[in-house]
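Below is one such record:
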Amino acid sequence: MAYYRRNSSADRMARGLGWFSIGLGVAELVAGRRIARWMGMEEQAGLIRTYGAREVATGVGLLAMGDARPWMWGRVAGDALDLATLASAHHDGNPRRENVATALGAVAAVTALDVLCTAMLHREEATAWTPPRDYSDRSGLPRPPAAMRGAAKDAPIPADMRTPDILRFEPAEV
């Protein structure tokens, strides 16, 4: 079933998250090394840049496509990747562990928004049902049924619609 934007609160939220995605993605692409250093994850700078490209692509998808739901699921999946990457850096050996904890909290908060928006979009789709049209008052005939009775009785039958002679039933004479 096709889904079209109705400018609802869920659609506005999805567009806002799309812009957020683009902004975050550009920051990760441009300053991936600096972000990695801030979290004590210097060896992960390339991964952070890759995550930035994913964020930009998801943001563009949210803003450009009519159905935001698959792109929101992409954001939720990306959040899971981000959380797993950050969790792996949140250990006692990382001198920037507190910064990682801050990033984990921020990503968890955005994940909650992403899940909420996705649920709202799916709820809208479920409630967007419209009842089927009622054609019970229509007969399909060009005139009222009483005027149509017997109309075909006197109409000529085209040759290709007549019963072939060989198939015609003729009662036996007695």
Residues 97-127 form the longest helix (31 residues).
